User: What shape does this take?
Amino acid sequence: MRADDIKGGLAGRILRVDLSTGEIRSDATAPYASQWIGGRAINSRILLDEMRPETRWSDPENLLIFGAGALTGIAPGGSRTSVDTKNVFSGGKGSANVGGHFGPELRYAGYDHLVVSGRADAPVYLWISNDRVEIRDARFLWGKTTYETEALLHDALGDDMVRVACIGPAGERQVLGSLILVDRAKAAGGSGVGCVMGSKNLKAVAVRGTGRLGIARPDAFTDAMATAMRKVKESPTTVPMQEKTLSGVAYVDPHNPSWDLLFVARNGQDDYWEIEKRKQLMNPATGAPRFRRKVLACFNCPAGCMPFSEIDEGAYKGVSGEGFWVNTIMSATMLDIADPEAMITAWLLMNELGLDGDFAAGMSAWAYECFEKGLLTEKDTDGLALRWGNGDALVGLVRKIAYREGVGDLLARGPVEAARQLGGGSDYFAINVKGQPSIEPFRIPKGWGLGVATSPVAGRHLRGSLLGSGRFGPRGSVFEPQTYEDKPGYVFWQALTKEIEDITGICIYVGTWSGAHALEVSDYAALLNGVMGTDVSEAELMRLGKRSRALEKTFNGLHTDMGREDDLPPRRYREEPVKSGPYKGERCEPEKWGRMLDAFYEIQGLDSEGRLRRATLDALDMADEAEKLAEAGKLAE
Amino acid sequence: MKIKRNAERCHGCRSCEIMCSFHHHGCISPAASSISIKRENATGRVFWSVDATCDLCKGEKEPWCERFCAYGALKVAR
Assistant: This one.
């Protein structure tokens, strides 16, 4: 596609801000969009082109890029923004994806992407109001929580329609697993993106846009919108989710099959969480759903999945906010916490203080196991009894991590460094993938684990992970979650559809993964063509997905020495079988897992060490990437 | 006749805003919409207003805010 083939949909500019020099400029988006359409793929392209491998995450030369999808602000579920940078855990590609209303606003202000480089001498925030872009003094915001930051910016700018993406005290202190929070609720959580933002002395990005996004083919666009809306409406999961959220639908039933597949108990000591605890956490009368006041939606989202909770009694009376999610339940089981009020409070506190939930839960679960084994005592934790199930202790520990107080300073360093410092064999149960804490299941759902272990951005479950229980997987396919043989094909398909979802900015919960589970790649093609005036096919989009994934693999090849070892499940899950429940005895059997990994590499065109092959890149018209890898000795010839 | 919102059903997604702007201008722009949705993130409350530029999508079978609302939150009150 040529740049002038794109007739609509783009805001038009890539905004570039250098915090070291104060320089602000912008480039045209179209030359990038003609090759990579939008969102994460363009972010990846810029990172690969403009960052040297020697650059560390904490260097001013590291780039922090916000990239709205090509359909963000336009299509159903088109709310997403990809945040990309150097990964603080792996040193490779870092990426987090966030919904809400920030990305659409950035596009209405005239910018598809925002590239931040350099480091400010003192805390600053970025104010973007259409053509007016300013780097402003943020000393009045430094030290404030994310909640306070949004309110103070609304006051300072005199406009409560301003959208804010900001860090909290955790990001300011460069706690590794810090998030960037949008709209006071939606987290760009993974890869330590908030830690990078803190290292740049950038407290917040505030944006207000009143511009327009053009539609190239109005009739085709209207048809594609109507089709998409019909599909969402016809999905059997849409209405229950709109009324009760996904976790409120799936997990109020303690016998729902997902309970047995998806949840890791007590830092991986088991993969079965007892029925009574499930009931305590999630029953409608006294569990987490009891505190749900409302369900809210991200921008133009027909699914609507996010609960607003309010605790009206007990020790946590007065706590309220948006955000209780499946990851909240995954965190609860990792810590054995069945107390719904404490779990809601801890989760909202992570948002408020700017801590990624998976990171905080993963590091806390490690600390709880250290406490169980006597490696940490109440003397080390300032009196916090980190016993399995103690939700009050978690609330206290979250605060300590965010502010790096006492034992929190140890946990803030991440699983590899914390275990190295504490010793005592604690590295064995410092569960991580490529250095990032992991709360994911590996031993039972093999496709889920394969997606997490091989994710180019150091774990997390959105790069191909699927269950096969009727949720999370290609529509209509039925497969046994715990078997190995058919997983590579499914996982690669799911990884590619996620690439396209991050390129278009359409949420996976409207799309191919779960939730409303309504839209497919053919729908994205129809919407793109209506909006941009292009003629891309479903097959071309799947190929673009491969190219986008290859960009990240290339980045990792050039910037790290990660190889096959780094694509394996955490050691505990290879050695210890599940101890109880219907899947007792399951583990990641090294030989079978290895064969599954071989097949997965083969499907992607990688060699047995996980390196890209020249022929693979050539077939994707990525000869330049092949050359760079060859020069670095990282290409499989 | 005017558009009425059921606040209980509304999830604050703003699809009505953008489809309204598309009707009026053939492009997507909440600022150019007859409808304004305001979300109060601290309380989860969602406010909305319709200004005098609303023409109930003259020329269309039904107003597009109603047609494209996934939550059934908008209806023309006759």
User: Anything to note?
Assistant: Chain B has two helices and five strands. Chain B has one domain: 2-77. Chain B has a mean pLDDT of 95.
